[in-house]
Amino acid sequence: MIIALVATSCTKKQITTIEPIGQVGQLSPGGLIYTLPKTNLKIKVNAQYTEVIPGPYARFAQKYLGIANAPTTKEGSWAIVEVTADTYHQADPKNFFVVEPSEDFAIDFLKVTHEGLIIPAASSSFSSSQRLVKVSPQGEGVNYVDLSPSPYIATEQTTHYSRVVQDSTFVRVPVHRSVVVERTIEDKAKEAADFIFSLRKRRMELLAGDADFVAEGQAAEAVLKEISRLEEEYLTLFTGKIFRANVTHWFDYSPEAHGPDASSILFRFSDSRGVLPSSDLSGSPVLISLNVTDQWEGTSVLDQLITEKKGPRRDVVYYRMPVPVRVKVHDSKSEFLNQTLTFYQFGPMLRIPRELINRL
Length: 360
Fold this sequence. Notes:
Order of helices and strands: HEEHEHEEEHHEEEEHEEEE
Oligomer: single chain
Structural class: alpha+beta
């Protein structure tokens, strides 16, 4: 009887055990480690800087062209153009498990990891941290050189009278002189406005066929294009020139620290300085909010699994089920992003019985 018991114990089949890594003292040569996934966000923020350089004739735009509210001072401002978000997965450092497999252990981790339910500890992906880019104004050194089609100075004829002795008497004799004078800014503004109207008149004559010459085909297209270019160039003397620069900022965000249904400061924004770090109090906060969209019904069994996590069983494989989460990026005035993405850490923890492992 003793010999039979010894033989039976020696041939007893080893079972597969799964335990949290904190409860395992050492790992056997045949053991392996897996971890549950968590979802992080990589957020792309496109900001645009717009700078307006006023024209030299801005204060005469209303008088000679009928253009109201032309900018008269140099201005520059930032605006958020677009915010997009994408997810990537990392290993959850709080959910590592050790598997001590039996001889018939044959789980196909490739199938399980393809679904993202668990990930091998050696295949974690990492992403760069937040990155801010600075931009320099492009309008520095702008010089308006073509101010009008006529010279900036003009020659005026003046008449002076000189007293000349003729026949013992003094006679006033007119003397004509040419004097070079500098035209005022308003005079040049009027000339520039007259030139704009003359260009428009020429264009109408070409389109109506009333011009002195007839342009056809590519020649007509080239003439009209050049007239439009000159008109636009001279209009900037009144309306000013606009420069724009686009800058892209990247932010990595892990919502685990705050949990679902919570908001936190993603970055700060200033009209004069653009996108700023969250620690820079000179800007207004831009928040990110995450809200779980699904309402789970009859989740008493899932609640039991959450309680079970404190003392996990050794005969099951734990995994997570991803759930949809509404992601919003907004400030006090505008909403820049409203998108539903899938997150693992907000989903319920599920398990697979050990007996089904070989069937995966």
